[in-house]
Amino acid sequence: MKPAKFDYYCPKTVEEALSLLEEIGFDGKIIAGGQSLVPIMNMRLSTPEYLIDINQLKDLQFIEFDGSKMKIGALTRQTEIEMSDAVRKHLGLLSEAVPYIGHVQTRNRGTFGGSIVHADPSAEIPLSLMALGGTLHIASKEEVREVNVEDFFVTYLTTDIMPNELLAEIHIPVPEGRVGYSFHEISRRHGDFALVAAACQLSIDSQDRIAKARLVLGGVDAVPLLITEASGLMEGEYLSASLLNKIADIVDEVVNPESDLHATADYRRYLAKKLAVRTVKTAYERARGEHNERS
């Protein structure tokens, strides 16, 4: 299939792109990597009248560490995230999750910001970002506003970003101390969308008690699901079989997946419980220095 007819623009600066967005509004779409948008347009599930190609906006393609947080430009390719030594050192969870995205060719074109704005609830980058926390810097012609990741995802394929706005960069805090992380997903085959995915980052104190934890599940709701009840349960506790069983019980209560052609709701719930336990356990072991190799 082929997309519906559209007018094409290729701005050279962020200011030019924002002016176009202000003028075009709901009738336009931004394209960067195009790994999600192009198939949707080919199937005519999206028929924008105007396509704004932002690949010339090199100011939005960067990875920087300022001592307390990582700053990543929205146009940064997923492969750059995967290969970045700085990301691997400071945001191990993100470094571990990105290789699950599609295939090499997909990641060579797909962008960090594009995956976030597309907001597929089973996608690896939104899931990881929710586990890591941070803020999204969203630009319009009038201002740049900051949105916490918890407030950004609204529902399926829908975010807080407005038609006249552009995601410019993402700031992710770099945790200090004894920190562990883990990402796991189950898919029908490598490169497919995850049936269920789980991400966890946690820190422990000098006595091995969990000081802070964020557990997120994908593929079980319309948005990446932060399991706040599990976070509250874990904080101040040692990891134990009893604690892991309680986490599984919480997941069983809070997730509400739907059945589709690929998996039943019951199977997704089962996977969610298993992956939540595995992910928390691996993150805790890494924080203690017991699980340094990726699995």
From TrEMBL:
Q: State the organism's lineage.
A: Bacteria, Bacillati, Bacillota, Bacilli, Bacillales
Does the UniProt entry include the keyword tRNA processing? no
Return any one Pfam family short name. CO_deh_flav_C
- Assigned keywords, A-Z: FAD, Flavoprotein, Oxidoreductase
Molecular function as annotated in GO:
FAD binding; oxidoreductase activity
State what protein this is by name: Molybdopterin dehydrogenase
Q: Domain named FAD-binding PCMH-type: which ranges?
A: 1-177
InterPro entries, per database record: CO_DH_flav_C, CO_DH_flav_C_dom_sf, Diverse_Substr_Oxidored, FAD-bd_PCMH, FAD-bd_PCMH-like_sf, FAD-bd_PCMH_sub1, FAD-bd_PCMH_sub2, Mopterin_DH_FAD-bd
Organism listed in the record = Parageobacillus thermoglucosidasius (Geobacillus thermoglucosidasius)
